[in-house]
Specification:
Helix 8 packs antiparallel against helix 9. The chain is elongated, with a radius of gyration of 28 Å. A hairpin with an 8-residue loop joins strand 12 and strand 13. The chain has 396 residues and is α+β, with helices and mostly antiparallel strands. The strands form three sheets. Strands 8-9-10-11-12-13-14-15 form an eight-stranded antiparallel beta barrel. This is Beta-lactamase-related domain-containing protein. Keywords: Membrane, Transmembrane, Transmembrane helix. InterPro entries: AmpC-like, Beta-lactam-related, Beta-lactam/transpept-like.
């Protein structure tokens, strides 16, 4: 629970700066990003306060701690609450179990250029906290953990299932399911291919890694890009020799829910919409200029075709701007994007009205063969564009 009366303005005023890594190892200062989903990113404090919290968590139960009223609550908090498979790291009531030489419990978090990783080893009354103020920091926040706590042993069992059983394409289950942000997951698919009977190659949006099977359907990181370090252990849920889900320390992955042809068609249509509606206005300008020179009267159907085309262009430009703004600043608040969603609704309504009016005036107009082809193409493209926006939830 957030208590405003307990806010310490000095902490906010003296908050450390964060940096992005640039070319040649140079650093550039990063702006501070606020995550609007409480409590993620909502706590600003000092390293000393976090150290006191970690110290209280590893205090022996015999010692009185300010965290809990009853001593057994501490042991319950640090006990395993979920594990996908025996011997596979799971959860301990909000802490992630660490696959190391000792049973460690950790919790980490990060924004664009701030990261923290806290790990405690209750059996040894040991705790470590790594705080960074730079991007691309995984080798620090997790690499130091491996060095100080120790990596787990990799004993490889015999007669293991074939790695071909876990091949496939997966999506992270830790994603946005409603709204346009759901599209992001499909741009970062996890592709799994077998190298041999016991090894698999992973590709996540261009980042690659190799895993080796140590026990039935349990794979451990052998080597690869830093992005895979947090998920160094993967357990594949297999049913009838077909993998349906991957469990990792931080996030599960589920089998792709859309076919490859559907995704390719969606991509092809998106490219078509962008090209068609961004070029069409220039074609309309040329045609209008020619009609004016010939002193031809503009038919009502032609006018509504122009409105339909321009509303489609407005939709295309609005979507492009939305994408550019999100890529330039991924953690924008919903209020910053609201204008784009309102625009999508407005331009969609205009497009639908234009289609209806074009059909009405079609019968009354004397149109050439090429005009009919062009108007039909615009109508079909507009309707498909709106359907595409609905399918990919671009209205919220």
């Amino acid at each position: 629970m957030h208590l405003p009366v307990e806010d310490n303005e000095e902490i906010t005023l003296n908050k450390g700066k964060s940096y992005l890594t640039g070319e040649g190892g140079k650093f550039t200062e990063s702006e501070s990003y606020y995550i609007s989903m409480y409590p993620s990113g909502g706590i600003n404090g000092t390293a000393l306060d976090l150290a006191k919290f970690a110290q209280a968590l590893i205090s022996p139960e015999s010692e009185k701690t300010s965290l809990f009223q009853e001593s057994q609550t501490q042991s319950e908090l640090l006990s395993t609450s979920y594990s996908p498979e025996e011997g596979v790291p799971g959860l301990a009531h909000g802490f992630w179990e660490y696959d190391g030489e000792y049973r460690g419990l950790m919790h980490s978090g990060n924004t664009v250029a701030y990261s923290s990783n806290m790990q405690i080893v209750p059996e040894d009354n040991f705790a470590i906290i790594v705080l960074t103020n730079q991007a691309d920091e995984l080798y620090l926040t997790f690499g130091l953990m491996d060095e100080l706590v120790g990596k787990g042993y990799q004993t490889i069992q015999e007669n293991l299932p074939s790695a071909s059983e876990v091949e496939g394409t997966y999506l992270t289950a830790r994603r946005t399911y409603n709204g346009f942000m759901n599209l992001y997951a499909y741009l970062a698919q996890l592709d799994v291919q077998s190298i041999n009977d016991n090894e698999i190659a992973l590709d996540l949006a261009g980042f690659k890694a190799t895993y080796i099977q140590t026990s039935p359907y349990v794979y451990k990181l052998k080597g690869g890009d830093d992005i895979f370090i947090p998920n160094n252990v993967m357990f594949f849920h297999v049913n009838d020799e077909k993998a349906e889900q991957i469990s990792t320390t931080y996030a599960d992955y589920v089998a792709m829910d859309k076919s490859k042809p559907f995704l390719l068609i969606s991509l092809g249509l998106f490219i078509w919409f962008m090209v068609y509606f961004l070029i069409s206005p220039f074609v309309l300008i040329v045609l209008a200029f020619l009609r004016r020179r010939r002193k031809q009267k503009t038919a009502a159907a032609t006018k509504w075709n122009g409105v339909l085309t321009l509303s489609g262009t407005a939709l295309a430009v609005n979507i492009v701007l939305l994408i550019i703004r999100m890529l330039s600043k991924p953690m924008r608040t919903y209020s910053e994007m609201l204008l784009h969603f309102i625009g999508n609704y407005v331009f969609t309504v205009i497009s639908l009205i234009s289609v209806v009016m074009l059909i009405i005036f079609w019968k009354k107009a004397s149109l050439s063969k090429w005009q009919k082809v062009g108007y039909i193409l615009t109508c079909i493209s507009s309707i498909l564009f709106i359907a595409w926006l609905i399918i990919w939830q671009m209205y919220s």
